[in-house]
Amino acid sequence: MQVPRNWRLQKQRYSLIGEVCEHCGVKLFPPRDVCPECSHGAQTLYQFTGIGNIHSFSQVFDPPNGHIENTPFIVALIKLEEGPMITAQLTDIDIEQVEIGMEVEMVTRKMSDDGVEGMIVYGYKFRPPVVD
Amino acid sequence: MHTMTINNRETDLQVMKPDMPVGIVGYGAYIPRYRLPAEDVAKLWVGSSNRLPVSEKSVAGIDEDVVTMSIEAARNVLVRADVNPIDIGAVWVGSESHPYAVKPTSTVVAEAIGAVPNTQAADWQFACKAGTEAIQAAIGFVGSGMTKYALAIGMDTAQGRPGDALEYTAGAGGAAFLLGTSEESVATIGGSHSFVTDTPDFWRRQNARYPQHGKRFTGEPAYFRHIAECAEQLMNGLGTKPSDYTYAVFHQPNSKFPKQVAKILGFKTEQITTGLLASDVGNVYAGSALLGLTAVLDAAQPGDRILLVSFGSGAGSDAFDLSVNNRLSSCQNLAPTTKDYIERRTVIDYATYARYRGKLALK
């Protein structure tokens, strides 16, 4: 478990904080040093709304280390309403309920842990809104 | 040896009130999606489903704990309160299921909602009243002018030993409250009182996985005495009587106890029905009375008066008098209501419950 690495990524993982390019206005997630659209630097932090739509999805049966307890889980490509496409797990939903195009919202959940004595890593997942 | 003075004081009690009037500026509930029917537990251990304490209990998903659940409740608070999280001067989480023995829940919550770094953060512990004592401290923090806002949360993923009486009810959920000045609040705190004694009705030692309890001892000398005395002393101090309250919410370890204590105190069924959720979610421990309060705030109207009394084993009660303000009506539907969470419901069987709650050893 890489404690410093997880710590560095906290803001984006807990709260979906990315960046907005002050030069061309594009919203970026994850945050980058250089805008991929206009190549300008010095981005400003931007809090995404956490609302998006499912672009595509799949189910993982053969997981990486640290995710065995959670298997099988659903991974989706999610198009955020501000533009970026991100990969994230779905939660609070069964595979037969998932549909391409459906609206989802961001929640902060447990991603993995380093055994019962190790660190717990929290991060974003997506689920259907509690209220339609 | 220091000689202590035996406390025989009975009549000169003073209700706790801050220098400046304080109220709830925003509130938010959280209940996980999963439900385990009590019948399913009974089928496994006793083979009969007579006299079950609740109909079902809420169960946290495999990727949920007190940190993630507190974050969601806190985000619901912020939507209703409409305040900048950097103005929150304290983030306090009361629970008996903090994910770490050492490493605060509250710092993760504060980081996730954007209240860091210039804020106070702490975890509270006192069985099922850990959340209400955080509210009392928040009232003091705000009412003395030390901070503009303080966030107090009561949240639990309660533990029950397989086959124990607690397994029917030990649920998951809770609520968060932002305390601020009365002028901008949805409900003003009229006063608070606490009543505690060393009563060993329920405990869990440092490294024990499941709690132990005093069985029937948890009733009369623990739950009923502390709630009834605390409520009566608050009402005496404020000069109020049960009929002055539109709603009353009591800690709800099952659906029977709160009805009985309401009767003892002289409250009618219609005063406690809105905030009595035990049959739908079980006992959500530090979140129990507080979740009941969110259900009441979802339904209340300006001018309504609410009595809230928690109970924590060990043992003690915190009682609060609240009066609803005009601003409540405009923010009730800004975030999911407690009913929305209760109705978002997926029934699971005992095997799935055992997996989600880590009762299956994979290594």
Under CATH at level 1, the class of the largest domain in chain A stands as Mainly Beta
Number of folding domains of chain B?
A: 2
Q: Examine the secondary-structure arrangement and name the CATH architecture of the largest domain in chain A.
A: Beta Barrel
Helix fraction of chain B, binned, reads: 25-40%
Per DSSP E runs of 2 or more residues, the count of β-strands of chain A stands at 8
Main sheet attributes: strand count, strand direction, barrel closure of chain A: 5 strands, antiparallel
Counting helices, strands and paired strands, the structural category of chain B is: alpha/beta
Strand order in the largest sheet of chain A: 6-5-4-7-8
> What is the CA–CA distance across the termini of chain B?
53 Å
Taken in chain order, the helices and strands of chain A follow as HHEEEEEEEE
Q: What oligomeric state is this?
A: heterodimer
Uncertain runs of chain A: none
Summed up, the domain count of chain A is: 2
DSSP helix count of chain B?
12
Relevant CATH superfamily of the largest domain in chain B: Thiolase/Chalcone synthase
Please give the order of strands in the largest beta sheet of chain B. 5-4-6-7-1-8-13-12-11
Mean pLDDT of chain B: 94
Quick overview of this protein structure:
Chain A is mainly beta. Chain A has 2 helices and 8 strands; from the N terminus they run H-H-E-E-E-E-E-E-E-E. Chain A has helices at residues 3-8, 10-15, and strands at residues 17-20, 27-28, 44-47, 51-60, 73-80, 85-90, 103-113, 120-127.
Account of the protein in words:
The complex is a heterodimer of chains A (132) and B (363). The longest helix of chain A has 6 residues, at 3-8. In chain A, 9% of the residues lie in helices and 40% in strands. Chain A has helices spanning 3-8, 10-15, and strands at residues 17-20, 27-28, 44-47, 51-60, 73-80, 85-90, 103-113, 120-127. Chain A has 2 helices and 8 strands, in the order H-H-E-E-E-E-E-E-E-E. Chain A has 132 residues and is mainly beta. Chain A has 2 domains: 1-48; 49-132, OB fold (Dihydrolipoamide Acetyltransferase, E2P) (Beta Barrel). Chain A starts with a helix and ends in a 5-residue tail after the last strand. The mean pLDDT of chain A is 94. Chain B has 363 residues and is of the alpha/beta class. Chain B folds into 2 domains: 22-186, Thiolase/Chalcone synthase (Peroxisomal Thiolase, Chain A, domain 1, 3-Layer(aba) Sandwich), CATH 3.40.47; 187-326, Peroxisomal Thiolase, Chain A, domain 1, CATH 3.40.47. Chain B has 12 helices and 14 strands. In chain B, the strands form 3 sheets. Chain B has a 9-stranded mixed beta sheet with strand order 5-4-6-7-1-8-13-12-11, sandwiched between helices. A 3-stranded mixed beta sheet of chain B has the order 3-2-14. Chain B has a two-stranded antiparallel sheet with strand order 9-10. In chain B, strand 12 (305-309) and strand 13 form a beta hairpin. Chain B starts with 21 loop residues before the first strand and ends in a 7-residue tail after the last helix. The model of chain B has no long low-confidence stretch (mean pLDDT 94). The A-B interface holds A 10-11, 14-15, 47, 68-70, 91-92, 94, 107-111, 115, 120, 122, 125, 130-131 and B 33, 61-65, 67-68, 71-72, 99-100, 108, 111-114, 336, 340-341, 344, 346, 358, 362-363.
